[in-house]
Design brief:
Layout lengths: L2 E5 L24 E5 L4 E4 L5 E2 L6 E4 L6 E5 L11 E4 L5 E12 L5 E5 L2 E10 L4 E6 L2 E6 L2 E2 L8 E4 L2 E6 L2 E5 L5 E4 L10 E6 L2 E4 L6 E5 L1 E3 L2 E3 L2 E3 L2 E5 L8 E3 L2 E3 L2 E3 L3 E4 L2 E2 L2 E8 L6 E4 L7 E9 L4 E4 L5 E9 L22 E2 L1
Parallel strand pairs: 1-2, 2-5, 3-6, 4-7, 5-8, 6-8, 7-9, 8-10, 9-11, 10-12, 10-13, 11-14, 12-15, 14-17, 15-18, 16-19, 17-20, 18-22, 19-23, 20-24, 21-25, 22-26, 23-27, 24-28, 25-29, 26-30, 27-30, 28-31, 30-32, 31-33, 32-34, 34-35
Length: 353
Amino acid sequence: MSLIYYVSTSGKDSNPGTQARPWKTPRAVSNATVFLAAGQKFDANAASPISFAGLTNATITSDPNNPATVVGAAMQHGQNIGPNMFAWSAESTNCTLSNIIVDSVDGNGFGGLVRGTNISIGNVQLHNLAEGFDWQGVNGVTILSGKQTGRVLGRCHYFLGCIQFNISTDVMGPSVAQSPIRFSTDVGGPYVNNKGGTVSIPVTQVGSPDPIACFAIHNAVDVTFKNCFAVGGEFSFDGAGAGVGDNVTGCNVVNLTVSGSKLNLNTIAFNNTFTNFTGSNATGEVISCQTVAKAGNVVNGGTLTSPVHGIHMYSANDTVFKNLTYNRDPSRTAPLMDGLFTGANDGGGNVIK
């Protein structure tokens, strides 16, 4: 049976960690659950982040109805970067962080660097951070019921070379400088393809207009994106400027909604399927396909709403569009196909059914 330890701001680290005599400082322990007192605030700093490094079956949690808050320290070493409040290592296995608010006293804190196998974050709220969590080479990513409750300057979650996703969260964003959700690759490093599993995020927002994407997917293989909603920023399969080795292939995107921006298939998107896509953009196209050769992408079913082009093709080919409804500004008098913007910019092999 797993052990249970308790932490309270009124405790002492010399205590045994019982409910009657709790610890004062949060810590993770193998084969144990550490319970942080409901509603209390605990500090984490660069010198001593709350570490799961090398641990197995370690859980840190709090009251789901009145979660504890872990607060990051101010800037370190005079740099405009804060500490990681949590840390995992490649040897961390079956570790869980749940029912916690992650905050920062000056907006420069980082949630943490995540590595290991079967790492779970559940009902973890991000507030006033420079960035959330940086996932590197994790085999078994689980993020459930988390949300962002305040300003996050950069990414909420950043993935490099992770395998088997199980992400089903609440609101992510608005992120004001970088994409809330970013999948990428570690060029020349050990973390290559993000592969497999399901991502479902009902609302993802950016606090600034394009070119910031809600979902910046630069590397993903055989990942299912289901019931995702991007507000104010792109859902982007785009390798431009992200690095050599970027590749998005074999992904299945179901019930995607993009509001105030577009679905962007650019450079690196091959053999992906989009089913039941709904997009609206008041200032430009709803789907953009650029410089994708032998793409093999399929967009099947959905509604596009825009005053200009429904679909913008630029040197792209071999993409199938079918069962789409295009709603445009009724004041436009050009033929319906004006919504496709083909002609000289159509790379050939595209099919509209």
